[in-house]
Design a protein that fits this description.
The complex is a heterodimer. Chain A is α/β, with parallel strands linked by helices. Helices cover 34% and strands 23% of the residues of chain A. Chain A is built from five helices and nine strands. In chain B, the strands form two sheets. In chain B, strands 2, 5, 6, 7, 8 and 9 form a six-stranded mixed beta sheet that branches. Chain B has a two-stranded parallel ribbon with strand order 3-10. Chain B is elongated, with a radius of gyration of 25 Å. In chain B, 26% of the residues are buried. Classes of the chains: A alpha/beta, B alpha/beta. At the A-B interface, α2, β1, β2 and α4 of A face α2, β1, β3, β4 and β8 of B.
Chain lengths: 201, 156
């Protein structure tokens, strides 16, 4: 049979590029590249409705109030000593509050806490009892709010970095998961977000 | 030398394009791996606030989005310019958040439900009143893990 000896012609592949192009364009159009970034927070659970809401008593020295007004100005300080403050000063003020380096009477008390390290040993660290309370009014802008949240987060991150450097000799972000949990126990992110305050009339 | 000159007078051969599909496939695979599918159409416009201490949102399947902002241009004739909340593919009010969270939670595995994160994507011009209402609803719905979406900036 003569026809069997004939070679099968090669499939023309010149349009393969076009097919690949159209696939590429489809993926370019239908997908997004941006990864979402944001400030992670835990909301406090809602108290049961039938239960009378009692104010949790927090000692005055353990509370750092940050009030962001509608105009975007910031008042910060302990309960009786609130001062208008610039956004850039907020980090240092918050850091001083969290660390209380001189064990001052006006800054939060510390309580020794045993923290388990990943290698099985125990580590006693004086954990600060301070809580930062962030209050806003209903007409505060979101931009200012995020900026303030950012400064407070920065304060906590810097403190965690310092503690991690002292304890493990590395920055917080460079630590393993177990060490990170230990540092998080030692410096908990305590930002309480109260409901917006009604302006007093 | 004479031989070389003779060769130079010849026409240049056409550049082979047989590897062009391979190159395109490489770009294609790059995009397939590094991007994610657009899952919903945005009905609101927002400009995210900027922050320096942002963290990446991990595990996209566990993240649900709440968008807050002005209605998109094409929708403004009907909906005005007051900030709106978008859940899934339509404008909703704060009252719908409870149902939204319940539905989103049902989509997840039982073991993943505790790790569900709500990503709040709000415009910089939003007032805290709106955001707080949303937050209160989220607390009521017991969706406590949230993330305020912000883009990374380099600081002051």
């Amino acid at each position: 049979m003569a026809s069997n000896k004939r070679k099968v012609p090669e499939v023309n592949s010149s349009s393969q590029a076009d097919i690949a192009f159209s696939l590429l364009i489809f993926f370019l159009v239908a997908t997004t590249m941006n990864t979402d970034t944001g400030l992670a927070r835990m909301l406090p659970p809602m108290p049961p409705e039938n239960q009378a809401q009692e104010d949790v008593k927090v000692k005055e020295r353990n509370l750092f109030l940050v009030l962001v007004s509608g105009g975007g100005s910031i008042l910060a300080g302990t309960q009786n000593d609130q001062q208008p403050i610039d956004l850039r000063q907020l980090t240092d003020k918050a850091k001083e509050f969290i660390l209380n380096p001189l064990d001052s009477e006006d800054l939060p008390e510390k309580q020794d806490k045993e923290i388990e390290l990943p290698d099985g040993s125990k580590w006693v660290y004086p954990v600060s009892q301070g809580v930062i309370s962030l209050q806003t009014t209903r007409d505060t802008g979101y931009q200012v709010y995020i900026q303030v949240q950012n400064e407070l987060t920065r304060a906590f991150n810097e403190v965690r970095d310092e503690v991690a450097l002292r304890k493990f000799g590395a920055r917080f972000s460079e630590l393993g998961e177990g060490e990170r949990a230990a540092i998080t126990d030692a410096v908990p992110l305590k930002i309480s977000e109260a409901e917006p305050r009604q302006l007093k009339k | 030398m004479a031989v070389m000159q003779k060769k130079g007078k010849k026409e240049l051969p056409a550049i082979s394009t047989s590897s062009l599909p391979d190159v395109i496939y490489m770009i294609l695979f790059f995009f397939m791996v590094s991007t994610s599918m657009r899952d919903q159409e945005l009905l609101v416009r927002y400009k995210l606030p900027e922050a320096t201490e942002v963290q990446k949102l991990e595990k996209k399947s566990l993240v649900s989005y709440i968008h807050i902002g002005q209605p998109a241009r094409s929708m403004q004739a009907k909906w005005g310019t007051a900030p709106r909340i978008q859940l899934n593919d339509s404008y909703k009010t704060t009252k719908d958040i409870l149902d939204f969270v319940a539905a989103e939670r049902d989509k997840l595995n039982e073991s993943d439900r505790a790790a569900m994160t709500i990503c709040l994507k709000a415009d910089v011009a939003t007032k805290m009143g709106t955001v707080t209402d949303v937050k209160q609803e989220l607390r009521r719905a017991n969706a406590l893990k949230i993330s305020y979406a912000a883009s990374k900036s380099l600081g002051y």
